[in-house]
Every structure is written in structure tokens, then in C-alpha cells.
Amino acid sequence: MGWMVRGAPDLSVHDTFPKLMLYHAAVRGAHPAWREKDFGIWQTWNWSEVAQEVRAFAMGLKALGFRRGDRLAIVGDNRPHLYWSMLAAQSLGGVPVPMYQDAVANEMRYVLSHAEVRFAVVEDQEQVDKLLEIKSDCATLDHIIFNDPRGLRNYSQPFLTSFAKVQELGRGEESTHPDFFEDSVAQGKAQDLSVILYTSGTTGQSKGVMLAFSNVIMSAKGAIDFDRLTGDEEVLAYLPMAWVGDHIYSFGESLVAGFCVACPESSNTVMHDLRELGPTFFFAPPRIFENLLTQVMIRMEDAGRIKRSMFHYFMAVAKRCGAAILDGNKQVSLSDRLLYALGRILVYGPLLNVLGFTRIRLAHTAGEAIGPDIFRFYRSLGVNIKQIYGSTEASVFITIQPDGMIKDDTVGVPVPGVELKMADSGEVLFRSPGAFLAYFKNDEGTKATKTDDGWVSTGDAGFLDDDGHLKIIDRAKDVGKLNTGGMFAPKYIENKLKFFPFIKEAVAYGDGRDYVACFLNFDIEAVGNWAERKGLAYSGYNDLACKPEVYSLLADCVDQVNRDLANDPHLSASQVKRFLILHKELDADDGELTRTRKVRRGFIAEKYAELVTALYSGQSHCDIEAQVTFEDGRKGTIKANIAIQDAQIYQPMKKAG
What pTM did the predictor assign? Predict the structure, then answer.
């Protein structure tokens, strides 16, 4: 029997996250709150234990001189202790500033200095070393606290302290000031600054988005009510803590609803830990769902003939009626229902078990558009996956797809409390309780994004369909025109290309030009497996990128995209005429992607200007030399002679009439 909640918290009273933590500790203290896998074993803390851990760390911060209004940076993989440090800072009236754990020292320098961070809590030696490298450039940084002591025994800097030592200080401080913690928590108000989240910086320097407690709590509450989430849910926290998606799903919603959050052992064991944990509620960007599907298809291609035939037969059944059964469509025939039930025993159930999706009753995806085929694949298996639309400035939730009204080409309807309208330019504007306070130390940016009466510009172009569902076309600033007059929506084209498991990244160009051309990155795992089955020898990514067979494989994907675009009256002129396969994978360390893996199209165009020129000059090959960053941080260069291939262009489909 699941845990029965004895009444949800009154958010007019429990209006900050520390207050919500104390509420759950008092009302349902024995209920699991956090889990972490360490050395292969899942450890669990209940709400009462979490409150004690947070209290001890907060009092330790107080002993070190942490003051109301101070900023505390948090750097590392998803760890309960790092989430607890957020709560500890907020309990003292401070502001957590989570940072991307894979950011290089120079990126960290900007955030630490801009946010005027005094304290930093980091996961391990790797993060300590990065902060030590830049500490002299960060005038306000006084204390660095580490969670994992391995490798740090001989570090003697006086400003360096372990998490456990700070908690020990806190317990001593608590003995002399027993009421301080609760009194400090009680001073917090809904309108107080809760967190500063820095945007990924797709087009320039990242901005610090200031969110109040009320922003995050009310946004989380709206989504919880919309999807009927309960305190019985269990989620896996594996996405960057600096990303607003993780902040809402792993922190905000957990503290509002009171459900359990589990942290994987490491970034390398996420998929294994996902299968072992079996969460009930799962959030992932499309690339995660795409990667899972790619792995499934690779494994099936390697399976025996009988198993492969059975898989494809029952997947055809699922494609025909699975989503309709999930939506409660009563028109599905009895024979299809019986076949689907048999498929659940023989194929769907075992497959969901392998994926770790056996217990999932709800899944969300956002960040980019998900491919319709991928979306339908999961829904056909009985996974209630929904697309949402949101932003950091919205505390995530703007729209969610409602049960029974799922469309694969829209992002749903406004969450209750959210208002939408379209600007004359086609840009989507919203107003909601989750709308951010302002950008930190950036009044000009705030005024350009948020009006005095609360309307926020999303930067995305879209429209509402006849059912009131929002459809996003592209970033408003990126929507352009070809010289022929046709619309050019690069992100839309890139997403269609990335729907194929062989294509990992795509960068489209065409605004102000005669036709559309693309850079492509392939998925090394998917294409490598394909090459091995074909008996095609290769030494690595660069070698595969030169193979005519790989060009032919990706040309088939481009061809299918062009066929689809030819049937779209708005985008038929945007068919891809020429493409090339880049000699290296696009990398955030090389500045080509943001830390949330969004393409920095302008930077790439500047870095590979000669390749862009070659795509539009009729050349069949182009020499390139580019700097790359290796995994150990060393810089190097890669030289290549890149082939450029023409694609088939199709006549637009004529309208019936």
C-alpha cells in the first residue's frame, strides 16, 4: 500500500521551500525523500532525516559567516547533499546559484563573479581544482566546501572545508542557538528571491534569471494539479542541476508534492540505475528518448531472425492501436485489443522493463521538438509521454499536453493560471505566476523581455490551432526568408533531420540565400553499429565521416526530410539542397554547443565560414583545419578534406481543389 498523504500543504502558509521541507518532516517524516546509489547500494533518507541534515549544514554555514542575501554556488553531479545545500542557503535567507558541472573554469569564472558568490559547495576534487584555478579572479569567493573528500587529503587551503566538517560545526552552533534555524526559516516570504539560474547563452553571454519562491512553487503546483501527481511518485535526478528543468522536477515539485527523488551513482550509470529504480514519473529531453530508442533498434538488429520478426510484427500492432488504447479510445477492435494484450506479454512488457519504464505512469519531454515517430513509438508501448513547453523565465511550465488530447506536432494547452497571446510578429508571449522577477544586474535585458504588466517574450514563433493547442515553429529571430521568398525555419529543419537515429546534430543555413544547406553530425554508436554489420572498417568518427557509404546513409535521411517538406505548403521551399558531414562532433567545450546541447548556429557559421561558402559555391570538396578540445582538456587541430553532396529536391505537393 502506498503512502497516504494526510493533506497537502497550505501554500499560503508554507510558501518557501525550507517551510515545505519542515512541513513534510512533521507530517510525513518517515516517507522516503531522497535516495542515492553509492558503491552499488541505494541509500535512503526520509523527510525527518533530510530536515536534520539541512539544519546541521545551515547552522554550519552560519558559523562560517553566511549571511542573509549571500549567494551560494553549487557545482557537481546530482547528489542529495548538493540539493540539501540549496535548502540550507534558502533557510538562512541566502540564494543558491547552481552551475553546470561540465563547465570549463572560464565559464565558471563569469558566473561566480557576476553573481558575487561568497560560498561554493562542490561535489569532488575535480570541481575543487577548477575553482582553485580561478579563485584569485573571483573577488567575493571566500569559502569552498566539498562533499566527496577523495583525493583532497593533502589540500591545506584554509578556505577549503568538507561538507561533513561544516555539519559538525553546525551541530555545535545549534547547541548554543537551538531556535535560530526555525526562526530563520520563518522569516522567509513567498516573494523572496529563491534561486538564480543562468541561461545557456545560445546567442551570447548567459543571463542570471531571478526566480522567487512563489514563481517556482506556483509553477510546480500548477503542473502537479494538471497531471494529478502525488507524494507517491519517484523520480530520477540526472540532468544538470543548473538547468531549470531539473530545478523544477527534482527540487520544486518534490518539495511541493512530497515525493521521492533518487540520484544515480554516476553519469555513466544513469541508464542502468534507471532500469534498477523504475521511476513512476520521468522527465527527459528528446535526445534521451532518441538515444534509448536507438539502443533498442541496434539490439534488435543484432537479435536472431525469429525474435526480430516477432518484434516487428507486434510493433506494427502497437503502432496501429497502442496510442488509441492508451488514450481510452473505445473504437479499437476486439481483435486488435487481444493482439495488443499478447504483445504486451511477449514484447512491450519486456521492452519497457529493459528501458526501466515498467512503473512509469507519466513522462514529460521538452527542450526541443521530439520526432513524431519517436513520440508515437513510446505512446504505442503504453508510456503516457507528453510534450511540454516552457522556459527558465517561466519557471518551466507554459503549456502541457492534456490526457486524451495528445498531438504529436503541438506542445499542448496553457497550464491553469498561464495566459498566452501572439505578438503581431508571431512571437509567443505569456503571463503566469511563474514569470521571473528579473535578470540579475541586467535591467536592459529585463525590460526587453518582460513588460510592466507582466507579459514575457519567449523568443519563439508559433500559433494556436483550432483546438487551442500551441504549435512552435522556430525561434522568432531565426525565422527568415530564402531569396526565392519561401519561409526558412532552421530549427524546424534541424529537428526533422535529428528525428533519424543516425543523425545526432544538424545545423541549417538559408536565410537570405538561394537554398537551404546543412552541416550534419552522425551518431557514432548508431552509425558505428551499422558500419560493423556492413563489414565497413573504420578507425573513429573522422574516418567514418569520410566514407561514401556514410554519405549515402545520411543522404537517405535528407531525402525523406525533403519529401516531407515538399508536402508542407509553408516550408516546401526549405528543402535541403546541399549538405556535408562535419569532420568532428560538435562540442560544448569548443563553444559549438551550449551546456544544454543547443546549437550555437552563429558561432559555428563563423568558425567554419569556409565550409558555409563551399556549400553555396558549387564546390564538391573543401579543406578544413579546426581546433578541438580533447577529453583531458588539451587543445589540438584536426585537418580534413570534406565532401559536399547534393540532395534530391521534390516538387511541392499541389493543393487539392
Answer: 0.81
